[in-house]
Automatic annotation (TrEMBL):
Its cofactor is [4Fe-4S] cluster. It comes from the Bacteria. This is Radical SAM protein. It holds the Pfam family Fer4_12. It comes from Actinomadura spongiicola. Keywords: 4Fe-4S, Iron, Iron-sulfur, Metal-binding, S-adenosyl-L-methionine. The keyword Metal-binding applies.
Length: 208
């Protein structure tokens, strides 16, 4: 496994994917093809934006108000070595919390050196494949089968209901694309679909 990262997208500052102001990194490439995934452009294993962990840290810490990182994709555990190094380096510069989404279940990751390195940096892990018929429109997990693991106590005192709280999402429209940040409610999904259908250039898409 390489320490270089193949990054699909970065959001330098948002409140839609966890407590506080967070920078979000979506990696390119995913071994799962979950039905209903709203990030189909990020499933394919293809070169996107190749970055070193140090370059990624510079990007995610550009906003001085950022207090947390959220990793999604794509599949972060396929690039666990680079993300683990980036998280470690970022924490050397600033106190941060780390949230990570993965299609793997935690049990599938244990004992694997790369994923274990990333798990050591993660405070909250949201695991499991997305199942569209189990999407109950609540919480930061995409569907009810997914689990929230609090791997450290760093977010223990933060009033965020990862399992059943209201969903938050942002649609950021750009000159030639759009970015969906967050875990969308049914209403936001509908708005996102309308944007995809009407914009002349297909938007960059992401759910979590």
């Amino acid at each position: 496994m390489s320490g270089l990262l193949n990054v699909a997208e970065i959001c330098a500052s948002t409140r839609a994917l966890g407590p506080g102001v967070r920078a979000v990194v979506w990696v390119q490439g995913c071994p799962f093809r979950c039905r209903g995934c709203v990030a189909p452009d990020w499933i394919e294993e293809r070169p996107a934006r190749v970055m070193s962990p140090g370059e990624l840290v510079d990007a995610v810490l550009a906003d001085p108000e950022v207090t947390g990182l959220t990793f999604s994709g794509g599949e972060p555990m396929e690039q666990a070595v680079g993300l683990a190094e980036a998280a470690r380096r970022a924490r050397e510069r600033r106190e941060l919390t780390v949230i990570c989404f993965t299609g793997y279940r935690l049990e599938e990751l244990r004992g694997r050196p790369g994923p274990e390195a990333l798990l050591a940096e993660v405070d909250v892990l949201i695991d499991g494949r997305y199942v569209d018929v189990l999407d109950d429109d609540v919480g930061m997990r995409g569907s009810a089968n997914q689990r929230v693991h609090r791997l450290t106590d760093r977010l223990a005192d933060v009033a965020v209901d990862f399992e059943a709280g209201p969903r938050r999402a942002e649609i950021r429209v750009r000159a030639d694309s759009a970015l969906l940040v967050g875990v969308p409610s049914a209403a936001v999904r509908g708005a996102w679909t309308r944007i995809e259908r009407t914009r002349p250039v297909p938007p960059t898409s992401k759910r979590d």
